[in-house]
Design a protein that fits this description.
Elements lengths: L7 H36 L12 H32 L10 H21 L6 H23 L2 H4 L2
């Protein structure tokens, strides 16, 4: 078990995953504020908070940049996890771990949200809501490592 932490790939994996999480947290925060700001505009009775929030255009730019950076870093983190598993001779067992399966699903969904946003087909509320949903998947993925019994995870 101590050999887990001596691999350089472990530290690269952890660093990239946390950097990807930070990008996603920023994207989700801007998406949530975007949804709130949009709701305030449509209600025709904006509150005092409305005046202190950034414009929808600024929030959209922040969201896009954070989403772009987050999805790339998260994907690189998953890739570095493969190299780490290869060093541990655990590449065969990696696909039995629910956290790994959920990570792939979450990464796929984030790429889907990112590519739809990149294509400029959809913007605004639907992309913001998709980002919030994908972040909920990410939270489930992150918590699955702590909630799933070790026997199920293959350790």
């Amino acid at each position: 078990m101590a050999d887990l932490f001596y691999s350089n790939w472990f530290w690269v994996h952890i660093g990239l995953m946390y950097a990807g999480f930070a990008g996603f947290i920023t994207a989700v925060a801007s998406a949530a504020i975007y949804l709130f700001q949009s709701y305030q505009l449509k209600s025709k009775h904006p509150g005092a908070v409305f005046l202190k929030l950034p414009s929808l255009d600024v929030l959209d730019r922040i969201h896009f940049r954070a989403l772009s950076l987050g999805v790339v870093l998260f994907s690189l983190g998953i890739l570095s996890g493969f190299f780490w598993a290869r060093d541990l001779k655990g590449l065969n067992e990696i696909f039995k771990d629910p956290k790994v399966i959920l990570s792939f699903f979450t990464c796929f969904f984030y790429w889907l949200v990112f590519l739809v946003r990149l294509s400029a087909i959809r913007r605004g509320q639907k992309i913001a809501a998709g980002t919030v949903f994908a972040f909920l998947l990410l939270a489930v993925t992150f918590m699955s490592g702590h909630l799933a019994p070790a026997a199920i995870r293959g350790f």
